[in-house]
Amino acid sequence: MPRLIERIAEAKRGRIDARRSAVIVAHPDDETIGCGALLARLDGVQVIVVTDGAPANGIDARTHGFADIDAYAAARARELDLALSLAGVASSNIRRLGLADQGAAHALPRLTRTLASLIDALGLAAILTHAFEGGHPDHDAVAFAVAAAVERLERPVEVVEMPFYHRAGDDMVLQHFADVGPCEVTLPLGEAERALKARMLAAHATQAATLTPFSTAFERFRPARPRNFRALPNGGAVLYADRDWGSTPGSGR
């Protein structure tokens, strides 16, 4: 059977049997940024969202006009449900692990064990997830936890990476891999695919300002590479090094 990355790259853009596949991402809306258009082709796919999208410090909740972080998290959950319903993902295939936004890096052992158990219980053969790129601490934590969970298993699991954003000098680069290399698959999206992705992005209404810069013109994927997770990603140019996003490299936080 062709690997998932090979099915994604097929020119025909046909339906893909994804009953043994999962999209594992850090936040509600990451699924849409990374593979919103592709999701509509993935029949039976599981979507596993690690955090609830609501940082525990409450700043984002207040900024968006919510009384508390629980109300904000509930709103983000509704947005996720709407976005995934547009892509045809069954509500029974959505799994939420419930960590606080910006908290995944502080729960790596538990997160790794949880993902290993889920991957095993669901019989997953392929996973779409974050590249380790130094963009957001939760993204990098999920990239690590997926890799570590797969390593714990006694069978192969295909891992496919998606780019979100990374630092390049003083700029933030969106939807391009930080380290360009072979085997990348870029899918230019057709008119209907772009319209679907735009509707999915709009479903995440609380995140409208954040999501505006992301393109609906393409989606990118590649097979995950072996990583030294002890070294900082992107050559040490880590975007969250000077942002209050819950984790700062080298600080012990």
Automatic annotation (TrEMBL):
<protein>
    <submittedName>
        <fullName>PIG-L family deacetylase</fullName>
    </submittedName>
</protein>
<dbReference type="InterPro" id="IPR003737">
    <property type="entry name" value="GlcNAc_PI_deacetylase-related"/>
</dbReference>
<dbReference type="GO" id="GO:0016811">
    <property type="term" value="F:hydrolase activity, acting on carbon-nitrogen (but not peptide) bonds, in linear amides"/>
</dbReference>
<dbReference type="InterPro" id="IPR024078">
    <property type="entry name" value="LmbE-like_dom_sf"/>
</dbReference>
<dbReference type="Pfam" id="PF02585">
    <property type="entry name" value="PIG-L"/>
</dbReference>
